[in-house]
Amino acid sequence: MFSIIQGIVQVLFDGVAFGMLLFVMSVGLSITLGMMRFANLAHGVFAMLGGYVTATLMYRGGWPFLVTLPIAFGLVAVVSVALERFVYRRVYAAKELDQVLLTVGIIYMSIAAAAYVWGPEPMTFTLPDYLTVYRRIGWFSFSTYGALLLAFGTVITLAIFYGLERTRFGAMIRAAVDDRRVALGMGINVNRVFTITFAIGSGLAGLGGALGINALGLDPSFPIEYLVFFLIVVSIGGGGTVKGALAASLLLGLSDTAGKYYVPQTGAFIIYVVMLLVMLWRPNGLFGRS
Amino acid sequence: MTAETQAANAAAVADFRARARWQWYEPIFWLGAIAWYFLFPTYLPLGTQVLCSALFALSLDLILGYGGIVSLGHTTFFGIGAYTAGLLAKYGWGEPITCLLAGGVTAAIAGWICSFVIVRVQGVALLLVTLGINLVLYEIANKAYTITGGADGLQGIVFWKVFGVFDYDIEGRVAYIYTLAVVFLLFLVARRIVYSPFGLALKGMRENWKRMPALGAALRHHGALIFVLSAAIAGLAGALLAESVQFVALDSLGVQRSVDVLTMLIVGGTGVLYGSFVGATVYMVVRDQLADLNPAYWYFWIGLMLVVVVLFTRNGVVGALSDAAAWFQRRGRAQS
Amino acid sequence: MTTAALKTHGLNKNFGGLKVTQDVKFELPVGARHALIGPNGAGKTTFINLLTGLLSADSGTIELDGRPITDLPAHQRVKRGLARTFQINTLFPDLTPLEAVTLAACERHGTSRQWFPALANRKELIEEAYALLAELGIGDQAHRLTRHLAYGHQRVLEIALALATRPHVLLLDEPAAGVPAHESGILYEVISALPKEIAVLFIEHDMDLVFRFASHITVLVSGRVLREGPPAEIAEDPEVRAVYLGTAAHG
């Protein structure tokens, strides 16, 4: 009996930590999709880039882990703006299929580029000692790394909600997601709002990738491996809703962790089936507008 | 009826007839496929694979290029066809024609079942659902290794002689001719579909999904039918490949192959029938050449190809060719 | 007493808290030329969407020729003889008008799922499609791609697509929307020349056109029926003048 409770607490802790990580990585995609109806399948490339930036700075430069995080955020944000300006902007009005193909092409190119720069094998790195130990509170033992994910995830999530709900810029984002044309009519420069939002969202993906290197692993196939996770978050959450993305991320994090804990032999099977059932039940997502 | 309306009516019917008529380049194309047999005897296995991929791409073209439904998981049906044929042969029935048909039938049934989900969703949700079905099936095939061989693939399968006469030879001559014959027959079927009343309904779905119900179209039934037809052809393509290589790899159900076939179709051109053949040829030959040079990085060039096709051509290689032809025609007219 | 071609009773629809259709009772007699008017946001298009099944009503009933169609999906209502056009062109850009109308004819005829016989052999359907285009005066446009057609011709094609389903009730959502004033009359000549058996309900903002072509008018305000009656009565009604014509007079 006791071990059952222990197991549940363990799954809750790890599942929520993983879910928060997924949310940080995918919230940008959800907003992008809501605002521009742009299906950026290459979103995982940003997360991968963040991971490589942090791993390289730590491994080759000996930088402290925590210092590399803002650099990962900033660098990815800058790269994403260049991509948005010179490539993505040309296909906003295009058919969805063109967007899918373009971003798949970018995934392929970035996989090959990552393999060229960092090698095709999983990247090696060493986390600082304080992140590789387990702590105990009473009978409950947890990894400091998991606690870090949880703490960062909570802070970033709160910051995102505060930014969206309480700031002027957040109001502009919400207006643009709600109805682009009305926002334009209100004098909001939607293109500029979008560029900035895109940069922040991509930066967050980079930050998530950097934070998550230990949990997610890091090799050139990252953008494909986690593509389905991002798609699940935006489809189940319903594009454009941050609350939906958070709920979907937590659901996904918990079911994936629980699946691995209780029925490890089924692999990713469970989350795929759960996802298909949700899509059958609510084709527009749990929080989606029809 | 006046002579004038009679002439106009005749012109209207002739318009539809003209679209369906064989074009001058079509026999050239198929003669080229026959010539390959004599010109490149050492490349027959590659030729067979190109043909199977082209047929697979053609099946995707029916739902995507004509019906306007984007699928990220079309290899679901290709893999089901391949495994059906492979399993039949492994467990004692290796007659090629029946194995082939069985592959098509099981894939068609799978397509029919999937269509219930697929016609309900659009946009990103559609991408996710098609991808999700593909992933679930891949996981099943991966875990059920006692039946499917898991990651090692389905090994030790032997197909009997084609028509009980022609044994699969090591140079792949029988496989090539057999594959070419089947692909040609199925191409004829696809051609019929495209120029049938249903073909027009498919184009209607692609051009304006929303208007169709207002014309009295039952979209779910249309969707179910095209999924059955397309899945059947994809399954036949998978079974053909299984027969010609006498092996079924787990990656015949892999998402990578779903994306590959999408890439082939886009590079070739959608909604033009021959786009899938052009795309499959370009893709497979480029991959064959690049893989010799630099195995780890060739996806960079495939990716670049996709980006270039989307940003700079109207509809893949075939689109670019027809644009060029139109340009030359205009120029010729301007000069004369 | 004859049954109405189309009839609603107690029709309601809410979007969130917003009541866009409230308790609408409506009757369209066989062969009517009926205008639906009202200020912007009165719920006119929503009402058409409810009638055609693009939206489903929260409560209330819809009857076509005395038979309930409230729970039928959109395409089956079309099969029963209820067709519509769209305020914003909802056409097939890369098909020719001939192809598009032939498609509609195939759907009506039940041949649209025949996937093996050649379309070119369905001569009677193609000729029927061409005849319809010619009748509406765009026969010479039949072989061009829809996206290359002039806007006015595209508006006529909207009507042609609806007529190809052989409706006996036709709902026109601002058929002349976006057409320059001197051309919109031509569009309505097409509409008034429709066979008498077809009951027509049209949404229109131009009052001249409404009074010229409608034999009956329903005024919708905030999702409710404010008045209905013959044009002369509506024109004199003080309440209608206050909420609707008064504002229209400025524009």
Give an overview of the whole structure.
The complex is a heterotrimer of chains A (290), B (336) and C (251). Helices cover 73% and strands 3% of the residues of chain A. By secondary structure, chain A is mostly helical. Chain A has a domain at 13-122 and 143-220. In chain A, strands 1-2 form a two-stranded antiparallel sheet. Chain A is globular, with a radius of gyration of 19 Å. The N and C termini of chain A lie far apart (44 Å). Chain B has 336 residues and is mostly helical. Chain B has a domain at 24-253. Helix content of chain B is 74%, strand content 0%. In chain B, α3 (44-66) packs across α12 and α11 packs parallel to α14 (316-335). The mean pLDDT of chain B is 91. Chain C is 37% helix and 24% strand. Chain C is built from nine helices and ten strands. Chain C has helices at 44-52, 74-79, 97-109, 123-135, 151-163, 181-192, 207-213, 231-236, 238-250; strands at 6-15, 18-28, 33-37, 59-64, 67-68, 82-84, 169-173, 199-203, 216-221, 224-229. In chain C, α3 (97-109) packs across α4 (123-135) and α3 packs parallel to α5 (151-163). Chain C is globular and about 55 Å long. In chain C, 47% of the residues are buried. The chains are: A mainly alpha (290), B mainly alpha (336), C alpha/beta (251). Chains B and C meet through α1, α9 and α10 of B and α2, α3 and α4 of C.
Which chain pair shows the most residues in contact? Answer: B-C, 38 and 53 residues
What is the 3D shape of chain B? globular
User: What's the end-to-end separation of chain C, in Å?
Assistant: 41 Å
CATH architecture name of the largest domain in chain C: 3-Layer(aba) Sandwich
Please sum up the structure shown.
The complex is a heterotrimer of chains A (290), B (336) and C (251). Chain A has 290 residues and is mainly α. Chain A is 73% helix and 3% strand.
List keywords for this structure.
heterotrimer, A: 290 residues, mainly alpha, two-stranded antiparallel sheet, 13 helices, 73% helix, globular, C: 251 residues, alpha/beta, Rossmann fold, 2 domains, 6-stranded mixed beta sheet, 4-stranded antiparallel beta sheet, 9 helices, 37% helix
